[in-house]
Amino acid sequence: GAGVSQSPSNKVTEKGKDVELRCDPISGHTALYWYRQSLGQGLEFLIYFQGNSAPDKSGLPSDRFSAERTGGSVSTLTIQRTQQEDSAVYLCASSPTGQGGIGYTFGSGTRLTVV
Amino acid sequence: GNSVTQMEGPVTLSEEAFLTINCTYTATGYPSLFWYVQYPGEGLQLLLKATKADDKGSNKGFEATYRKETTSFHLEKGSVQVSDSAVYFCALSENSGYSTLTFGKGTMLLVSP
């Protein structure tokens, strides 16, 4: 597509429920990234995909968080047993190759609120 | 490890004032440097970048010069507009191999008419 598309744009869930966040990157971009943006915390890196593989998962905050990417395209970030501290804006980005120096294109994010 | 430090906001200016947002970095190698902007309710957009020392990135009247000697990449604009009100993020990535972006915490700019 023309840009990075994320859905849903807003999600309110009850504590303890599982949620799935979707990212559709720019067509042909092999690299895909998930970041989390919280008030006062800035932007935290979560996970990086190159094709369908995730060579860097170092930012996932706990084993409740997982992500997959299929067909070198769409990615899903899953949070199990959500907690209130998971409330944040989850941003997805893609880049053509993953090489440094190019910069990313970001989606508009999914605002997750855990009540 | 890599890190980026930005001046804390909010920065409050009147229209047509001069803007500087300071950014300094720590990196193990020779990174590329970026400024991203986030308008209210939107995702981050790349504003400008510089990939090596002494390069100047520029876009929409904004400029930043990669200063290796002071490890800085300060953002400047000569005359801000109300429409420039947004959050500005400084970021870096290593140039070798794959590299994730490391961001500063962001600086909110508020421009009043």
Description:
- The complex is a heterodimer of chains A (115) and B (113).
- Chain A is mainly β and 115 residues long.
- Chain A is built from no helices and eleven strands.
- In chain A, the strands form two sheets. In chain A, strands 2, 4, 5, 6, 9, 10 and 11 form a seven-stranded mixed beta sheet that branches. A four-stranded antiparallel beta sheet of chain A has the order 1-3-8-7, with no helix packed on it.
- Chain B is globular and about 45 Å long.
- In chain B, 0% of the residues lie in helices and 50% in strands.
- The model of chain B has no long low-confidence stretch (mean pLDDT 93).
- Chain B contains no helices and twelve strands.
- The chains are: A mainly beta (115), B mainly beta (113).
- Chains A and B meet through β4, β5 and β10 of A and β5, β6 and β11 of B.
Walk me through the topology.
The complex is a heterodimer of chains A (115) and B (113).
Chain A: E1 5-7, E2 10-13, E3 19-24, E4 31-38, E5 42-50, E6 53-56, E7 65-69, E8 75-79, E9 88-95, E10 105-106, E11 110-114
Parallel strand pairs in A: 2-11
Antiparallel strand pairs in A: 1-3, 3-8, 4-5, 4-9, 5-6, 7-8, 9-10, 9-11
Chain B: E1 3-6, E2 11-14, E3 19-21, E4 23-26, E5 32-38, E6 44-50, E7 56-59, E8 62-65, E9 75-77, E10 86-93, E11 102-103, E12 107-112
Parallel strand pairs in B: 2-12
Antiparallel strand pairs in B: 1-4, 3-9, 5-6, 5-10, 7-8, 8-9, 10-11, 10-12
Mean pLDDT of chain B: 93
Q: Give the biggest sheet of chain B.
A: 6 strands, mixed
Q: How far do the termini of chain B sit from each other?
A: 41 Å
Helix content of chain A: under 10%
Shape of chain B: globular
Key terms for this structure?
heterodimer, A: 115 residues, mainly beta, 7-stranded mixed β-sheet, 11 strands, globular, B: 113 residues
Quick structural summary:
Chain A has strands at residues 5-7, 10-13, 19-24, 31-38, 42-50, 53-56, 65-69, 75-79, 88-95, 105-106, 110-114. With 115 residues, chain A is an all-beta fold. The model of chain A has no long low-confidence stretch (mean pLDDT 92).
